[in-house]
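pinging the channel bc i need a second pair of eyes. not urgent but kinda urgent?? the chain im working w is below, pasted from the shared doc
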Amino acid sequence: MGDVWKALADPTRRKILSLLKKQDMNAGEIAAEFNMTKPSISNHLNILKQADLVDAEKQGQNVVYSLKTSVLEDILGMLSDLTKRGED
């Protein structure tokens, strides 16, 4: 769970997740949305993969990234449970 919080703490990674919410994208398409080097974007994508927030699938010469919602749903469920007072 710690990897998830680390991944979500960074605004660049949150923007990547927002982009992937709209559509699957390859690393070049993602990098085109930012003013930073491709290795920097690759590092962000690796952190998101380690946190299990994105899937990466090789398609020909490209790796296509997609949003993986299961971990996010688990986090939202946990946060929702924490906000319920007096319920067990």
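so The mean pLDDT is 89. and Strands lie at 25-26, 54-59, 62-67. — does that match what u expected or am i reading it wrong
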